[in-house]
Write a structure and sequence with these properties.
CATH superfamily of one domain: Vaccinia Virus protein VP39
CATH architecture of one domain: 3-Layer(aba) Sandwich
Largest sheet: 7 strands, mixed
Number of strands: 7
Helix content: 25-40%
Mean pLDDT: 95
Number of helices: 9
Structural class: alpha/beta
Strand order of the largest sheet: 3-2-1-4-5-7-6
Radius of gyration: 16 Å
Strand content: 25-35%
CATH class of one domain: Alpha Beta
Distance between the termini: 45 Å
Length: 215
């Protein structure tokens, strides 16, 4: 069973979670599994796997996201990575978007119960947010929302001139980067940094890309 010391061991050198934040993360996962018995929020049904595939995985994004960034999470599902990020970084401002209303209802429930400020969950397609929020964000992030090529196309309108796109990908990321070269060139973007992690028991590979405008 996960405890705060083990969580911090798995996140060593990336971010540190305190005991109060750990309790919030534990409550969040308990709610996720409770709601999941009635509505489909996640295919992961064991607590240990939830910690690895949802919490640790989400918090890896802190390697490229600063604690005061204004973040847009596209295709956020049940709130990953946005809710774990907001629990750990109290100064972060987050807009979370998913087109599946039941998933946004779950997010709003958790945000209310955890009293998370500066967190707005939108039940809509990302395209409908463009007029209101274009050029608004320091960071646009997504976890398995779509191909890298498509994600860049969707994300670009929302970042500030000095903003970043954070793509959370698996082991086959090299081929996705190759396929996205024309799109990167089209917008004057470059993969500025890349970090690879291996998740706990499953040994799943997670690769994070930080994409920004060429300097």
């Amino acid at each position: 069973m996960m405890n705060v010391d083990e969580l911090n061991r798995q996140l060593a050198g990336i971010v540190t979670v305190d005991s109060a934040q750990f309790e919030q993360l534990q409550w969040y996962l308990n709610e996720l599994l409770k709601w999941n018995r009635k509505i489909n929020l996640t295919s992961i049904t064991t607590m240990n796997e939830c910690w690895e595939k949802h919490i640790v995985d989400s918090l890896l994004a802190t390697c490229f996201i600063d604690k005061h960034d204004h973040v847009l999470d596209i295709g956020s599902g049940a709130g990953f990575p946005s809710i774990p990020l907001r629990i750990v970084y109290a100064g972060m401002n987050i807009d979370s978007v998913d087109s599946v209303s039941k998933k946004i209802s779950f997010q709003r429930h958790c945000v209310r119960q955890l009293a998370l400020k500066n967190f707005t969950a939108h039940a809509k397609r990302i395209e409908s947010l463009k007029e209101q929020k274009a050029g608004f964000f320091d960071v646009v992030v997504s976890r398995a929302f779509t191909s890298l090529d498509n994600f860049i196309e969707v994300a670009v309108p929302f970042i500030k001139p000095n903003g970043r796109i954070i793509a959370m990908k698996g082991a086959a990321v090299a081929s996705e980067v190759d396929q996205a070269k024309l799109t990167l060139d089209k917008y004057g973007l470059v993969v500025d940094r890349q970090r690879e992690f291996v998740l706990g028991d499953s040994k799943s590979v997670r690769v994070l890309l930080e994409i920004k405008h060429k300097s």
